Amino acid sequence: MNRIETITSQCGDSELAPFLRAAGRAALTGGSIIRQLYDKPHTIEMKGAINLVTEADLASETAIVASLNEDMPGLAIMAEESAGDAPEEPRGRTWIIDPLDGTTNFAHGFPFFAVSIALVDDALPQVGVVYCPMQDELFCACRGKGAWLNSGRISVTTTRFPVEALVATGFPYDIHARLDTVLQQLRSVLPKVRDIRRAGAAAVDLAYVACGRLDGFWEMDLKPWDTAAGWLLVEEAGGRVTDFAGNPYSAFLPEILASNSALHDRFVDMLT
Length: 272
Description:
9 helices, about 270 residues, seven-stranded mixed beta sheet, 2 domains, D-Maltodextrin-Binding Protein, domain 2, Fructose-1,6-Bisphosphatase, Chain A, domain 1, alpha+beta
């Protein structure tokens, strides 16, 4: 039994199992294209001063959409390269797709990036898949059924004290306008934790919180395709996801704080 079938079987008789299978197949398809293009010369266009799009983003998105439409025809789709800069919160079941989260890493040959696919229902994630093609790691979650890395169940850490915590963050594309806030957050968090990482792909950071490689993650000004799948991964692995003030999270909010739950209120205090 391949890993998609193994993971799908963990959903049992849930009606979400076929959606998880479709998302997993699509993520592997998009990731295979990205992996094949990784060592090739890239065509790079600018969506902003430091916001890139490459041929791999576009090719991956095309393949993912085709795969999802083949397996689950008729569902609405919100994908990064075709959704525009101000996506509205969807109604009903919708696929939310980032065909290549971490494009800057990809363009520079830094091998940390992912495909992210979520099925949301009225903007609440029901299925989430994050696939890291260079590591061949497939993270999956199904609401109410748990979260997995490849075919093994995952859970967040049990770290209770910030000084023992490894956390991650990311920087907004308009860093020049947010520099004071970013530095203030770093000054507040860095002296209190073991260390901070900045890998440059929010979907990967959230997957790493879910599987226990990180104890927490925060970032501002992300888009729904950056966080929708990872949000579900963290919660189904036993973690907690909110805004910086500890309020309920939505992928359409401008800020995210994810942790192992035990540390969450401490991080809220640091960020507020």
